[in-house]
Amino acid sequence: RKGGHKGRARQYTSPEEIDAQLQAEKQKAREEEEQEEGGEGATGDPKKEKKSLDSDESDEDDEDYQQKRKGVEGLIDIENPNRVIQTTKKVTQLDLDGPKELSRREREEIEKQKAKERYMKMHLAGKTEQAKADLARLAIIRKQREEAARKKEEERKAKDEAAMAGKRLQSLSLNK
What we know:
The chain has 176 residues and is mainly α. The chain is 61% helix and 0% strand. It has a domain at 102-175.
């Protein structure tokens, strides 16, 4: 059996060839833009010709360059509102001092903490249902303790009076 197409030797494109193809596509796109804008082509402005030949400034052009659309894509401009376009930012463009967007979980966690703090403040002020129930229970316990303390005091006084009466009787009986 002869080998299929997958067994053949593969040919790889070198990075230099890829760069050359990209440069050619960019230059072609620039020429088309110049023809659309001014109608003069690349011969009208020598600065533009120099810029198109410079490979050092190709980094700036990569952001502006868009691939040529196939078929009816060029005719119909469709924008998907759900599609998020990834844009790369340079370090100089980053704003580290600005407000940071929080994730949903972080926002919910912060809201929980704030709600808990509000509840604790209201609880300490005695405005929540639980605080009112606790205060009522504490008032009942205080009354019970006061009554118990009053009864103990009365019992102690009664014992003292009984002891004093016993001593008086004893002293009276000894005096006779």
